[in-house]
Design goal:
7 strands; alpha/beta; seven-stranded mixed sheet; 14 helices; globular; Nucleotidyltransferase, domain 5; 347 residues
Length: 347
């Protein structure tokens, strides 16, 4: 049985216990616990990432009661807990996605088009993926040679082979499927970049783009820093949604997971086997984004720790007041240090 003192010094989010209340306050000051963190459907424990929660449920040292219930009626894809095995079976039909109907390679190889599909102009969220060939003396320098842009409904907006600025020394055919003749008359990389950037900005000057309310489109992808660098293109970070550095999708070590792993773990199917298609990557990142965006978190007026209204929540000058609060009261004023994608669905 836990003493009342130990319960008072127990974090209401991650359940970590502290000897002194001042230590719990310092923990809350730096942990940024919030309603947006993944939480166990059995005991309610918050985790920084879904990987941490997976370890809590079915890892090497899981919590026994949570493991028992999860193995009986928990979904190993979204990590949700359901009221019955029948409810779990019904849920799995929509949670476990498939790679598609076998049209990925055919659509990508036969549908190469250098024209933006204007009918997709209303799309507010688009996914971008590139495939790289090698440059430099040893072929290790990444050069963009193929690009794809899709909308929320997995329709192709734009795809093209891309002619790099530098000579290609390794076509990496085993994974790209790209041959020299495919790039001979391809669109130059700078022209591709301008075309994509104009579409993303949607008539809004790039320096005017803000996080909400503008015309610019949200850009989804995996490792977009690298893709945009290889395209020699800029786009504001406030409107980028990158599955490689979104905290709930990262490893417990805070390193990025591969897109191949994320797709298998959180969508339930395999990608990037053999020759890889950028369309397939676009579909996977968009599905991951939509799944994260659809999470039903509690609505807060000011959800970020960086919002001016929250900057003094755990200020040093409030130390005495904070130490008199209960762990639950401190959790109520704690806010996230990252932008949760569920906020995109709230306009």
């Amino acid at each position: 049985m836990e003493s009342s003192d130990s319960l008072r010094n127990k974090c209401a989010a991650c359940y970590r216990q502290f000897n002194r209340m001042e230590h719990l306050v310092e923990h809350m000051r730096t942990s940024y616990h919030s309603v947006h963190e993944p939480a166990c459907g059995v005991c309610g424990k918050h985790s920084r990432s879904f990987e941490s929660m997976r370890e809590h449920l079915i890892g090497p040292l899981p919590k026994a009661e949570c493991e028992r219930i999860f193995k009986d009626r928990g979904c190993d894809i979204c990590l949700g807990i359901f009221g019955s095995r029948n409810a779990l079976r019904n849920h799995r039909e929509s949670c476990q996605l498939s790679r598609g109907n076998g049209l990925f390679p055919r659509m990508a190889n036969l549908g190469i088009s250098n024209d933006m599909r204007i009918e997709n102009n209303r799309s507010k969220v688009v996914a971008l993926a590139c495939k790289m060939v090698g440059g430099g003396s040893d072929g290790s320098l990444d050069l963009c040679a193929r690009v794809c842009l899709t909308d929320e409904c997995e329709n192709i907006i734009f795809q093209a082979y891309v002619k790099p600025l530098l000579p290609v020394t390794n076509y990496r055919y085993e994974t790209t499927g790209i041959r020299p003749e495919f790039l001979r008359d391809a669109m130059p990389v700078r022209q591709v970049s301008r075309k994509i950037q104009d579409f993303l900005c949607n008539g809004e000057p790039i320096w005017k783009i803000r996080s909400k309310g503008g015309r610019a489109r949200i850009l989804v992808g995996h490792g977009l820093d690298h893709d945009l660098k290889c395209l020699d293109m800029e786009y504001p970070a406030i409107i980028i949604r990158d599955t490689a550095d979104y905290p709930p999708l990262m490893k417990t070590s805070k390193l990025s997971n591969s897109l191949k792993y994320l797709t298998k773990a959180y969508l339930g199917y395999d990608i990037q086997n053999g020759i890889q298609d950028p369309y397939e990557d676009c579909v996977a990142t968009m599905r991951l984004y939509m799944r994260m965006r659809s999470q039903n978190h509690e609505v807060e007026d000011y959800p970020l720790a960086t919002d001016p209204q929250n900057r003094n929540n755990f200020a040093q000058w409030r130390q005495g007041e904070l130490e008199r609060m209960s762990p639950e009261e401190m959790l109520e004023i704690s806010r996230s240090d990252y932008y949760c994608w569920c906020l995109d669905s709230r306009g």
